[in-house]
Design goal:
Blueprint: H1 5-14, E1 19-25, H2 35-42, H3 53-62, E2 65-71, H4 80-89, E3 93-97, H5 118-131, H6 141-150, H7 155-163, H8 171-179, E4 187-188, H9 189-196, H10 200-212, E5 217-219, E6 226-228, H11 231-244, H12 247-265, H13 274-283, H14 285-297, H15 301-317, H16 321-332, H17 340-355, H18 361-372
Parallel strand pairs: 1-2, 2-3
Antiparallel strand pairs: 4-6, 5-6
Length: about 375
């Protein structure tokens, strides 16, 4: 068995003719139950048919050499048993996990990131500051040294501290910066303008300022640029959003935007534009999840049921069946607090049809029969 991270990489490099390496960021994934689905999606697997996704994933990995690089796993420690089950089922599977906390798996080997030596820490700080456009006089080395010492000479902390220009932002830039914390998995210019309630031209200027200050990143896409934020910076932005008292209002605007997105996408899922629409929804899946969670948390079950009924085709085609069923079952479990019309939608369009492709015929029939007996079910 490999004895270190370097040995793990060496084993896979020696077997590169038959090995694959897949890296995925877990920061946008908030639910430990979705870790297997996230891995399956990265590997191109979809849940179609009666076979559970976890079983499908284990079968796929069993005869392959695969190194999974899982980034930012500290908030998903409850998923450790699921990862252990994958490792036990697939002898050719290796995992390289970055986390602030150990997963405490039997085969886990922790490799801590060592602090930099003091001179190297100061040099890194000055280099990063120069990249951010800051002019640092040579006489500042002593001050920089004390800053690095307070940061325990950790590379990531130094990079963030050197580029951290939040206090130098204008008021408008700070407002947008903290509002962007509600996005998971990135955002578009249009989405940022809607959530911040600012004209797109103005938002573009503000986003450019945040890019210049290394507070966000930008990835070019075929149609439009997509922006993102490092998880560590997002945590700081979230703190600022809560402190401002704007958190609920911004979250509600984020939820409304993605609810509207489902309304606009629904009719086109049965049109020739379906492939592009599916890709767009997949790209926004993390934001859609956050919006659905918000709708449930605030008791907006009718809007939640409406969004689910419009997403069911996306969930079915793209193989997110277990997740779709989980959303519907959670809402249906609210019992008498769920309005009849919302319950009928969930029973008919999600809980019923999603169970059929999974081979749960009796449960699906029971759900559909209940929906058919409800006076709130639409008649054709």
């Amino acid at each position: 068995m490999p004895s270190s991270v370097h040995d793990v990489l060496a084993v896979f490099m020696e077997s590169k003719h038959q090995a694959t390496l897949d890296a995925l960021a877990l920061a946008p994934v908030r639910d430990p139950a979705l870790v297997e689905a996230t891995i399956a999606e990265a590997l191109g697997l979809r849940e179609l048919g009666t076979r559970p996704l976890a079983e499908l994933l284990r079968h796929y990995l069993r005869a392959r050499w695969v190194l999974l690089v899982l980034d930012n796993a500290e908030h998903l420690l409850l998923a450790a048993p699921r990862l252990a089950a994958l490792l036990a089922a697939a002898p050719g599977l290796g995992m390289l996990v970055t986390s602030r906390s150990p997963l405490r798996l039997q085969a886990e080997q922790v490799c801590s990131v060592a602090p930099l030596a003091a001179p190297a820490a100061v040099e890194l700080f000055l280099q990063r500051a120069a990249q951010a456009g800051a002019v640092t006089p040579a006489s500042a080395s002593e001050v920089v040294g004390r800053i690095c010492q307070r940061l325990d000479h950790l590379p990531l902390a130094i990079k963030l501290a050197a580029a951290w220009s939040h206090d130098l932002l204008t008021s408008a830039e700070q407002v947008l910066f903290r509002a962007l914390a509600v996005f998971t998995g990135g955002w578009t210019l249009h989405a940022a303008a809607a959530v911040a309630r600012v004209e797109e031209a103005t938002v573009l200027e503000l986003l450019t300022a945040l890019l210049d200050n290394s507070l966000i990143t930008c990835e070019s896409q075929a149609e439009a640029p997509r922006f993102a934020m490092l998880d560590t910076i997002r945590g700081y932005a979230t703190e600022q959003l809560h402190a401002s008292g704007e958190h609920d209002a911004v979250r509600d605007r984020h939820t409304a935007y993605y609810h509207d997105l489902t309304l606009a996408a629904s009719p086109t899922l049965s049109s020739p534009a379906q492939p592009d629409v599916l890709d767009s929804l997949e790209l926004e899946h993390d934001n859609l999840r956050a919006a659905l969670r918000r709708l449930l948390d605030v008791g907006a079950v009718e809007d939640f049921a409406d969004a689910c009924s419009r997403l069911w085709m996306f969930w079915t085609i793209r193989g997110h069946l277990a997740e779709a069923q989980g959303w519907a079952d959670e809402a249906l479990a609210t019992g008498g607090t769920l309005p009849a019309a919302a319950r009928a939608k969930l029973l008919l369009l999600v809980a019923g049809w999603i169970r059929y492709p999974r081979g749960q015929y009796d449960q699906a029939a029971a759900r559909l029969a209940e929906a058919a007996s409800s006076p709130a079910t639409p008649r054709t």
